[in-house]
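Worked example 4.2. Below are the chains of a multi-component assembly; read each line carefully before continuing.
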Amino acid sequence: EIVLTQSPATLSLSPGERATLSCRASQSVSSYLAWYQQKPGQAPRLLIYDASNRATGIPARFSGSGSGTDFTLTISSLEPEDFAVYYCQQRSNWPPRVTFGQGTRLEIK
Amino acid sequence: EVQLVESGGVVVQPGGSLRLSCAASGFTFDDYAMHWVRQAPGKGLEWVSLISWDGGSTYYADSVKGRFTISRDNSKNSLYLQMNSLRAEDTALYYCAKDDGPVRGVIIGNFDYWGQGTLVTVSS
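Applying the procedure described above to all two chains together yields the following structure tokens:
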């Protein structure tokens, strides 16, 4: 089973700053890596799919990069509504399996 | 507007059974694969199961294989999760989620719409 490790566990930044979140896979996942945002009491929201494609309606300040085993989610300039927990997620085609990272909490400094 | 509304979560004793439901609207339900994803209180996300658009293919996480059964009724725009032999570690908020794959195509395994979840508590 592929394990996703996110770092850091908690990231403390101020609005306007740049956020860089990391996700490392235990083996190559090609570009089959997605990112989700979850706010308290809400369901997750898809931000990025296939490593670098923004989902519908996601602001341009969110970007994803990477391939193979190392991936990054970047938020170019933090807005107050961006403080949340972020999860990376990989999918394997056969057999179909999905795994999530343990999450990075982005908190206001 | 896409809506997914889960129901059926209750407090159940270890070893018990439960069936969760998810009512879908706002999209052509029988065109897409569907998933169940769970989240234990204060913890991360765990994928549970998926079903193809026609119900012909189902897959499970190892943690629930042999105990949970996913199904769908396309005539009712509904997704189900039959949960048997429940354990304390199955306690979680259970979300249904739509696969973002193409219409009646390959299962992608990303989730573009989620419900708000239904809480299952396994406790004596």
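Take a moment to check your reading of the output against the notes. The mean pLDDT of chain A is 96. The first strand of chain A starts at residue 4 and ends at 7.
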